Task: inverse folding
């Protein structure tokens, strides 16, 4: 493998950039680096986003739980009208007699 790397560098020997940069290049580069503002992890932390996600999850779970809760009220014919209540009582008494 060492021979392969040496052969690569020998073949690329004439293609390397060996020119010297213009006078003052390094100073201009340093000036540009100093001119730019350094942003040091000044990311704003949004505390309300995770809290909003938790609140939305709680609301979702509560709404699903309340909608899936079985209805415990008894629904029969007597709750609709008095005539149907009388009919229901009639048939209930007939079924109890038999």
Result:
């Amino acid at each position: 493998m060492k021979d392969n790397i040496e052969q690569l560098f020998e073949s690329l020997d004439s293609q390397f950039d060996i020119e010297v940069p213009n006078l003052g290049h390094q100073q201009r580069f340093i000036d540009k680096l100093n001119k730019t503002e350094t942003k040091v992890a000044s990311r704003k932390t949004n505390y309300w986003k995770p809290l909003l996600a938790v609140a939305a999850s709680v609301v979702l779970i509560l709404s699903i739980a309340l909608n899936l809760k079985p209805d415990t009220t008894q629904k029969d014919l007597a709750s609709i009208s008095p005539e149907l209540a009388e009919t229901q009582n009639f048939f209930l008494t007939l079924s109890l007699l038999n």
The two ends are 102 Å apart (CA to CA).
